[in-house]
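[PROTEIN RECORD]
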Amino acid sequence: MKVLVVGANGQIGKHLVTFIQEKEGMEARAMIRKEEQASFFKELGAETALVDLEDDIDPIAKAAEGVDAVVFTAGSGPHTGKDKTIMIDLDGAVKTIEAAKKAGVKRFVMISSFDTRRKAIQEATESFAPYVAAKHYADEWLKDTDLEYTIIHPGMLTNDDGTGQVKIGQDLDIEKVPREDIARVIVSTLENDATIGKEFQVVGGNQSVTDAVKST
C-alpha cells in the first residue's frame, strides 16, 4: 500500500512516514512544502512531493497519482490567525479530498479535532471556535463523498514518547495522547478496512493500538 501523507513535515506526519516506511507492504509519499524538508524523508527511503497546500487542486492531485490512500495530517497550528485556519484546515482539507477523487484514490484518513460537532463550535472559546468550525465543515465535506473515509479525533496532543496504548471511542473525556501514538493509530486504521466509514476519538489508554482500532 502506498500512502500520500499530506502535512508530512508536521509532528504527527514525521512519525507516520517513519512507521509506514518500517511496515512491510507499506510505503509513504511525503507531501512537503519546501525542498529543504525533503532530506528527513529521503533518509527513510520515502518518496517526496513538493506541493504547497494553498495551491490549486491539480498539484495535490498529481501528488496523489498512483497511491492507494491519502492521509490528511496538515494543520495551521495554534499560533496562526483565522486566515490560515481557513486556508489550511478547511480549504486545504477540502482541496485534498477533491484531489483524491480526481486522482482516483478511494481511501482517505482525516486527522481532525477532538470534537467537531456543532455543539463543540458553540462551546469553544472565541479564539478556538474558527478552528473547530473549519474542522467541522472539512469533516462534513468528506462524509458527503463516496470516499472510503475514516475520521480520527485526537485528544490533547503531546510530544511525549508513545506508549503503544490508547483508548478509542465516542464521547470520551478529553485527555492527553502522544502524537507518536496517533501515528500508530493511523497505520493500524489503514490496515483495517472495518474502520471505513467511521470516526472515533483517541486518547491515552491501556489497550494496544491494534486491539483498540479493531474495537471501533
About this structure: The domain at 2-214 is CATH 3.40.50.720 (Rossmann fold).
